[in-house]
Write a structure and sequence with these properties.
Blueprint lengths: L3 E8 L13 E8 L4 E5 L6 H9 L6 E6 L2 E2 L5 H4 L1 E4 L11 H11 L4 H14 L15 H13 L6 E5 L7 H18 L3 E5 L2 H7 L2 E6 L2 E6 L1 H6 L4 H6 L6 E4 L1 E3 L2 E4 L2 E4 L12 E5 L4 E4 L3 E2 L1 E8 L2 E8 L2 E8 L9 E4 L4 E5 L2 E5 L2
Parallel strand pairs: 3-8, 3-9, 6-7, 7-8
Antiparallel strand pairs: 1-2, 1-4, 4-5, 9-10, 11-15, 12-13, 13-14, 15-22, 16-21, 17-21, 18-19, 19-20, 22-23
Bound molecules: adenosine-5'-diphosphate (ADP) and magnesium ion.
Magnesium ion binds next to helix 1.
């Protein structure tokens, strides 16, 4: 297993990149610790697969270096990097049996047959295909084939890292949950470095110790689920994580006070912003309290979602979402207060301060 260093990685697919928008990856400079479970989370097209393929060696970055445990592997093939990768769609040998598909990566590395047999049988249990061991892969469903792909990625225990690129896309929802739990358990048991790409926040948050949020070819934040929730470093993290996402309200900053339309709020300290920066205040719906006092809002709609209500309101001409308990009273003349620890201040979308 390896610590992975991404040293000033940039990647453009086209020739002669000039501006940032020519880069599928703008600049990635991070170190991922040995044995960590990372989720790469972001919308379609933000560069997740590009980054994963650069780590595995399927793609050479236009700039920068990749190091495993401090050793430069930028020019090495996937095989030489000793990486297992599971793709979005199944990659298996149709003419082989399920058993032989799983045995293949082990036999390829000269593992003795007794050991191959033990590990393949274990893996068949994990992916729930023990009864299918002798069947040719050809006739299986997409779902079963993807389980074989997963099994092939996981059957080796000598890899530097296992990379998963949205591997559960073709799996039905119940099985998704089962496989995700199995992956989590295997990670705990064997401690391999794992990078798991997904565009689904639930999948990322339930699965990883650290979530790497990507947006437009950049990593905008790496953090625990709690850090991403409590202190989004970029407004995108605020919108993308949470349901509903963070409210982002245009603001003016004057020392340690912010103005939102006709309302003024005092902060505990003065964030540093430059002249002309676009200032916004971010507050999650969970940190807004509805009541009879505070700043006035106009209620537009109330959505019941079990134990909570989502209240849609207008605040200083801006639509905002508020989360309230199911039995919370909604006053006719509604007002709101922002909990100080939930306030974040952004300049040009990047966090410059707040109360937390
Ligand atoms: P994600 O996996 O997050 O959906 P990708 O890494 O696949 O994103 O793509 C990032 C950007 O690079 C997108 O704008 C995509 O269109 C572009 N891109 C991806 N693969 C290629 C390619 N082989 N040739 C040219 N552009 C590509
Ligand atoms: Mg992708």
């Amino acid at each position: 297993m390896a610590r992975i260093t991404l040293d000033h990685i940039r990647h453009a697919y086209g020739p002669n990149p000039v501006s940032d928008s020519d880069y599928a990856l703008r600049e990635v400079h991070h170190e991922w610790k040995d044995g960590g479970a990372y989720a790469l989370l972001g919308p379609s097209g933000c560069g997740k697969t590009t980054l994963l393929n650069i780590i595995s060696g399927l793609l050479q970055p236009s700039h920068g270096r990749i190091l495993f445990d401090g050793r430069d592997v930028t020019d090495l093939s996937t095989q030489a990097r000793n990486i297992a990768q599971v793709f979005q769609f199944p990659v298996i040998y149709d003419t082989m049996t399920v058993y032989d598909n799983l045995a293949f990566p082990l036999r390829n590395r000269g593992v003795d047959e007794a050991d191959v047999d033990r590990r393949v049988r274990d893996m068949l249990q994990i992916i729930d295909l023990a009864d299918w061991a002798k069947r040719k892969a050809r006739g299986l469903t997409a779902d079963q084939k993807q389980k074989i792909s997963l099994g092939r990625g996981l059957v080796r225990n000598d890899v530097n890292a296992i990379l998963f690129d949205e591997p559960l896309t073709v799996i039905d929802p119940h099985m998704k949950w089962v496989l995700r739990s199995q992956l989590k358990r295997l990670h705990k048991q064997f401690g391999f470095t794992m990078v798991y790409v997904t565009h689904d926040q639930t999948e990322a948050l339930t699965f990883a110790d650290k979530v790497v949020v990507m947006y437009e070819g950049q990593i905008v934040q790496i953090g625990t689920p709690a850090e991403l929730f409590e202190t989004p470093r970029h407004t995108f993290v605020g919108y993308f994580i949470g349901s509903p996402g963070m409210n982002v309200i245009p603001a003016r900053l004057d020392g340690s006070s912010v103005t939102l339309g006709s309302q003024r709020l005092d902060l505990a300290s003065a964030p540093t912003a430059a002249e002309g920066d676009r200032i916004e205040l971010g507050i999650r719906p969970e940190f807004i309290r509805l009541g009879r006092e505070g700043m006035p809002v106009t209620i537009r709609r109330i959505e019941d979602i079990g134990r909570r209500k989502i209240v849609r309101a207008d605040f200083e001409g801006q639509p905002i979402a508020i989360v309230a308990d199911e039995d919370a009273e909604i006053p006719a003349e509604a007002h709101v207060r922002f909990e100080p620890q939930g306030i974040n201040i952004y300049a040009n979308s990047w966090r410059i301060g707040g109360e937390a």
